[in-house]
Design goal:
Chain lengths: ~110, ~120
């Protein structure tokens, strides 16, 4: 079945550092890929998405490129802020249905 | 994107009791979903709530434990029945508009449940 693997946290960074969260997936066909973010005490928010190979999703300074050859969708930000402290979830939606399959989540802590 | 509210936002319940969680959306949506997020874990889909038909449950989840209602296109409830401490989780409602793999799902704020 479909699965998503993302790097374990916590990831601790200083403000203005670069952030990369690795995400790889296993799926049949051509899934859509998503990054969701969960700020402390809040629900999940969609951060960005990509629906086909080589698509780049971007939002709030974050980017991720759908790499079919490496089955990856790594999340990157060039300069993080304290307000980026959150848990980040990589997810996929398979071609066959509506179910979202989530990775385990990566907690990011940005220190001033 | 849809605005989704859930009630209650949190609750502490006794073992053996049941809790019904409500999910309200500000617009009509085709697909509604219920997820569970156990402490420190990722999200797992419990079921898809279809308006006018029975909910579709994922492997490991059964209707007797998690009955779901979907009376119209803007509302759904999830009941956690005969609760045990293992049911302590955040329960999240999610909605999608048209279905299909490119459709985005939006999430409610969640209901934090603690079972003593």
């Amino acid at each position: 079945g479909d699965s998503v693997t993302q790097m374990e946290g916590p990831v601790t960074l200083s403000e203005e550092a670069c952030l990369t969260i690795n995400c790889t997936y296993t799926a049949t066909g051509y899934p859509s890929l998503f990054w969701y973010v969960q700020y402390p005490g809040e629900g999940l928010q969609l951060l960005l998405k990509a629906t086909k190979a080589d698509d780049k999703g971007s939002n709030k300074g974050f980017e991720a490129t759908y790499r079919k050859e490496t089955t990856s969708f790594h999340l990157e930000k060039g300069s993080v802020q304290v307000s980026d402290s959150a848990v980040y979830f990589c997810a996929l939606r398979g071609a066959a249905g509506n179910k979202l399959t989530f990775g385990g989540g990566t907690r990011v802590l940005v220190k001033p | 994107s849809a605005v989704i509210s859930q009630k209650p936002s949190r609750d502490i319940c006794q073992r053996g009791t049941s809790l019904t969680i409500q999910c309200q959306v500000d617009s009509q949506v085709t697909m509604m979903f219920w997820y569970r997020q156990q402490p420190g874990q990722s999200l797992t889909l419990i079921a898809t709530a279809n308006q006018g038909s029975e909910a579709t449950y994922e492997s490991g989840f059964v209707i007797d434990k998690f009955p779901i209602s979907r009376p119209n296109l803007t509302f759904s409830t999830l009941t956690v029945s005969n609760m045990s401490p293992e049911d302590s989780s955040i329960y999240l409602c999610s909605v999608g508009s048209a279905g299909g793999r490119s459709d985005t799902q939006y999430f409610g704020p969640g209901t934090r449940l603690t079972v003593l």
